[in-house]
Design brief:
The strands form four sheets. The chain has a five-stranded mixed sheet with strand order 6-5-7-14-8, with helices on both faces. 48% of the residues lie in helices and 18% in strands. The chain is of the alpha/beta class.
């Protein structure tokens, strides 16, 4: 994801001026001369396209957009954690952390490898911390590097939100919502939400990042995505994430048309154990629900030879074999309507909670709040 070209010193100068209400006191707080601080604010005003302060005998009075932007600026500065860090260093280090090598990061940013090396090296010196370790042609972040990468990512997320909020105040539809989508949400819930949202907010972009919970939780924590949709996890293991239950889903047995089980009057756990199964990985709620279902139905869960979380792949595997899967009917609506796949109830009811996961302390922008509202509305209408 491309980071905004933001000067962190300008952000710090602005935040200090809002806090102190005076160029003199703010310049002392951020160790800038008064002309340099005034110039920094002027450049930020040019970037935002509006005045941030009313200058008068009483000092610097923040305008309405300044008061909107100030909390985001303060949060970003806190996440960066050092006044010695520059925006160039942040962008270079984030690119390196996400790419895993200087060569790939250089290709992604358009900067030379030498420039990236220099920026990351200067950042390490400024912070007094070793941030990366060499592993052949790739790099590994040190524990300090991982903490810094997360903080920088969250800082950039705050500033993107701040710019979007000021644009909205100006009457410009702007901003971007990045959604992490686990498999179930991609069937009907998320697409219907996006259709309604983009019609109501045509100037706001929506990006969808697909993956499992394990693949999406890191980018969510790092500020690369704004919210994640799918089956909720045990709250005890998500101390830094917040979950909101939106609806209950009841997975069902799915098989090809003409499957030997289709015509049987009743199904026992022992009978289900005779067939191969296609299921997601062990660390997913659906896999645990399946194991619980099998045991409650009187059989030990059989070995799962094919683990797969892709509905497209599962569909093809079911069509060409006597395998069984445990899925939501909405995920295979087209195939079920066409009659090439069929469902039947599970011997023991299976229910899972589907919802929205976000970062603790996340403050959504206006468009993000609207998106959440439509997610809840669509789910309430039965798009599960």
């Amino acid at each position: 994801m491309t980071e905004p070209a933001i000067n962190i010193r300008h952000i710090a100068a602005f935040a200090a001026t809002v806090r102190h209400g005076s160029v003199t006191r703010a310049s002392r707080a951020v160790n800038l001369t008064q002309p340099a601080l005034t110039q920094a604010i002027a450049r930020l005003e040019a970037d935002l396209g509006c005045s941030l302060f009313a200058r008068g005998p009483a000092g610097m009075t923040p305008t309405e957009p300044a008061l909107l932007f100030a909390p985001r600026a303060e949060a970003a500065i806190a996440q960066v954690g050092s006044p010695r860090v520059t925006g160039t260093q942040v962008r270079a280090f984030l690119a390196l952390a996400r790419a895993g090598s200087y060569a790939v990061a250089a290709e992604a940013t358009g900067l030379s490898s030498a420039s990236l090396h220099r920026a990351v090296g200067d950042l390490s010196v400024a912070l007094g911390q070793r941030l990366v370790d060499r592993r052949g042609r790739s790099i590994m972040l040190t524990p300090a590097g991982e903490r810094r990468a997360r903080g920088f990512g969250l800082a950039m997320a705050e500033l993107r939100s701040g710019f979007a909020e000021v644009a909205a105040w100006q009457g410009k539809a702007a901003g971007r919502i990045v959604v992490g989508a686990m498999p179930l949400s991609r069937a009907r819930w998320l697409p219907e939400t996006i259709l309604r949202f983009t019609k109501a907010h045509p100037g706001v972009d929506v990006a969808v990042m697909e993956g499992s919970h394990a693949e999406l939780a890191g980018p969510l924590r790092d500020g690369e995505i704004d919210l994640m949709l799918g089956a909720l996890r045990e709250a005890a293991v998500l101390d830094d994430l917040r979950q909101e239950a939106v609806f209950e889903d009841q997975p069902t047995l799915v098989m090809r048309a003409g499957h030997p089980l289709w015509g049987e009057a009743s199904v026992t756990g022992a009978r289900l154990a005779e067939f191969p199964w296609i299921l997601p990985a062990r660390d997913t709620p659906l896999r645990q629900y399946w194991e619980d279902m099998m045991r409650e139905a009187g059989a030990e869960p059989p070995h799962v030879a094919i683990e797969c979380g892709s509905v497209l792949t599962v569909r093809q595997l079911l069509l060409g074999s006597e395998a069984l899967a445990l899925l939501s009917a909405a995920q295979l609506a087209v195939e079920l309507q066409a009659g090439v796949l069929v469902t039947r109830p599970t011997p023991v009811p299976v229910t899972r909670t589907i919802g929205v996961t976000s970062r603790e302390g996340w403050r959504p922008t206006g468009p993000q709040e609207a998106f959440l509202g439509i997610l809840r509305q669509v789910a309430g209408e039965g798009f599960d």
